[in-house]
């Protein structure tokens, strides 16, 4: 089990303030494996801080930062280093979604989603990877992809485009950083019961159609992502590079 031990490691996890979100569970999971956490979100992080520190005994630094603003990216890295003195893991989980028919979808909504989900994910990864290289750290980068990294979806053109691109940029970073001992991979969550998927679950017809295609027969829960995140953050994945790992209840196989 030492392969999965994250003691002495520091993980930045973006988008982790909501108890109903994937980032909250991933931050908890990495802390359960022994990592100290620098959690990033626009909103208050006191709930996740309390949960991590009381349940795991690990440290949690809350960094309030809007990932729509590029100026905040350096702030995230600087705050993590000031608190812990090192960074070992970056989890790019933060993301936003806008819903509208494609014939009516606004340029403003397109730009907002692409800025958070792709542009600033790229820049934060680039900055963190430079830190890894300069300090000879065999770092781990984990991006949050999606089932819409594979499919087109409906009413979410910018989200779909961004998540296809997240899969692509994961592979692109891998091709240049694997030789430096830096692992860049992604998790592609299936249909998980989060705030983002609430409109789908509330639509009886869509909900039934989705459940009928999931071999596991249920919506995923946030805790279902913990194992994959710990694996990709740990020594167990040292020869895993450029992979998109579906955690989808079998959706892609159906």
From TrEMBL:
<keyword id="KW-0560">Oxidoreductase</keyword>
<dbReference type="GO" id="GO:0051287">
    <property type="term" value="F:NAD binding"/>
</dbReference>
<dbReference type="Pfam" id="PF13561">
    <property type="entry name" value="adh_short_C2"/>
</dbReference>
<dbReference type="GO" id="GO:0008206">
    <property type="term" value="P:bile acid metabolic process"/>
</dbReference>
<comment type="similarity">
    <text>Belongs to the short-chain dehydrogenases/reductases (SDR) family.</text>
</comment>
<dbReference type="InterPro" id="IPR002347">
    <property type="entry name" value="SDR_fam"/>
</dbReference>
<dbReference type="InterPro" id="IPR011286">
    <property type="entry name" value="2-deoxy-D-gluc_3_DH"/>
</dbReference>
<dbReference type="InterPro" id="IPR020904">
    <property type="entry name" value="Sc_DH/Rdtase_CS"/>
</dbReference>
<dbReference type="GO" id="GO:0008678">
    <property type="term" value="F:2-deoxy-D-gluconate 3-dehydrogenase activity"/>
</dbReference>
<protein>
    <submittedName>
        <fullName>2-deoxy-D-gluconate 3-dehydrogenase</fullName>
    </submittedName>
</protein>
<dbReference type="InterPro" id="IPR036291">
    <property type="entry name" value="NAD(P)-bd_dom_sf"/>
</dbReference>
């Amino acid at each position: 089990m030492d392969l999965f031990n994250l003691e002495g490691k520091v993980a930045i996890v973006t988008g982790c303030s909501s108890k109903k979100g994937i980032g909250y569970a991933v931050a908890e999971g990495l802390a359960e494996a022994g990592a100290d956490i620098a959690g990033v979100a626009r909103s208050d992080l006191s709930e996740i801080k309390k949960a991590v520190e009381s349940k795991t005994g690990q440290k949690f630094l809350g960094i309030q930062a809007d990932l729509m603003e590029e100026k905040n990216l350096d702030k995230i890295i600087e705050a993590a280093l000031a608190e812990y003195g090192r960074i070992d893991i970056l989890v790019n989980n933060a993301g936003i979604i806008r819903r509208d028919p494609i014939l009516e979808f606004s340029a403003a909504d397109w730009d907002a989603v692409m800025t958070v989900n792709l542009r600033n994910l790229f820049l934060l990864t680039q900055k963190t990877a430079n830190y890894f290289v300069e300090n000879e750290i065999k770092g781990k980068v984990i991006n949050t992809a999606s089932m819409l990294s594979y499919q087109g979806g409906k009413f979410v053109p910018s989200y779909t485009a961004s998540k296809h691109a997240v899969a692509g940029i994961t592979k692109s970073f891998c091709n240049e950083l694997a030789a430096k001992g830096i692992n860049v991979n992604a998790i592609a969550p299936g249909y998980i019961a989060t705030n983002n998927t609430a409109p789908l679950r509330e639509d009886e017809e869509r909900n039934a159609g989705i459940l009928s295609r999931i071999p596991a027969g249920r919506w995923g829960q946030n805790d279902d992502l913990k194992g994959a995140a710990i694996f990709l953050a740990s020594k167990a994945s040292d020869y895993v590079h450029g992979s998109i790992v579906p955690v989808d209840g079998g959706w892609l196989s159906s």
